[in-house]
Give the backbone structure.
Amino acid sequence: GASFRVSTLNPRSDDQGIAVRGKYLFLDRDGTIIKDKYHMYKITDIEFLPKAIEGLQKLQRIGCQFIIISNQSGVTRGLFSKDEAECFHKEVLKRLKEKDVYIKDSFFCYHRQEDNCSCRKPEQGLVLQAAKKFNINISEGIFIGDKDSEIQLGKNCRGTTFLIKNGQYKTTVSPDYIVRNLIEVHQILGGDNKPQ
């Protein structure tokens, strides 16, 4: 596919003043990029959500960089091994790469809610690890997911939040934007026609 040098892109912003070039998008994986079939570890379960790959391609073209932040408590619950979780994720990354979508890094929490760790979303631990590694100002981050935990994480980091409304989970935390898919995130960040 076509390649784009981020450095040649001018910073763009929409009427909300979100400068896009070099933006870090903190993305949930299950329910945002791929279909959430609950405790995902079987490679046969990988199914990309409608418009997810196209949305990521478009976001990449306007200079966005992607970091996946994912809770995978199935490991601690004994439902699958860390190796299985890692093999599954490597396959997701491989399939994205085949479509010229590059994930800069991925961070996982394997704890259960009752473990009271500092890394399980909506806690900021994984985002802070990413911020340290890549020198990111987390308040300039864009947080995208389909659950309250992702929106609350974005709020805890004082970032911009997008809720992917796919009807799978009930949500009560108010995001900055509600969208149906990642193409609509691009429409807002890229200053295209706003979603209806």
Remarks:
- The chain is about 30% helix and 15% strand.
- The beta strands are 24-27, 65-71, 103-109, 142-145, 160-164, 177-179.
- The CA atoms of residues 57 and 101 lie 6 Å apart.
